[in-house]
Amino acid sequence: MPALRNPRWELFAQGLADGKLQTDAYKDAGFKPGNRASPSRLAAKQEIRQRVNELMREREIVNQKSLALAVDKAAISKTWVINMLKEITPEPLDLQFKRE
């Protein structure tokens, strides 16, 4: 679903997808605060609900990809750990204890 045709509706939907309260998203989208039910009525519109769901799905996909990339970059293999231990340990531990 492309962005909503009404730019204020789009901003409102983005605000809701960001986790803002309906009243805050309503004001941030450029609507004048007045009737307290207006943000709720707008949020109940099918176009708004669909757009919010789409934005949240898109963000979830981006978050999953970012997490996978971070895990890959930070991954430490067993072989790497063993090699690092070999480098920092001057001699095998069992030999160190036998000498004393």
What is the topological layout?
Layout (H helix, E strand, L loop, with lengths): L6 H11 L4 H7 L9 H7 L1 H29 L3 H11 L4 H7 L1
Give me a quick take on this structure:
By secondary structure, the protein is mainly α.
Walk me through what this model shows.
Helix content is 72%, strand content 0%. With 100 residues, it is an all-alpha fold. The protein contains six helices and no strands. It has a domain of 67 residues. The mean pLDDT is 87.
Helix fraction bin: over 70%
Count of DSSP helices?
Answer: 6
Rg, alpha carbons: 27 Å
Q: Which structural category do the helix and sheet elements fall into?
A: mainly alpha
The gross shape turns out to be rod-shaped
> Mean pLDDT, rounded to whole units?
87
E-strand count: 0
Low-confidence stretches: none
**Whole-Å distance between the termini?**
73 Å
Give the ordered list of helices and strands. HHHHHH
Q: Can you give keywords for this protein?
A:
100 residues, rod-shaped, single chain, mainly alpha
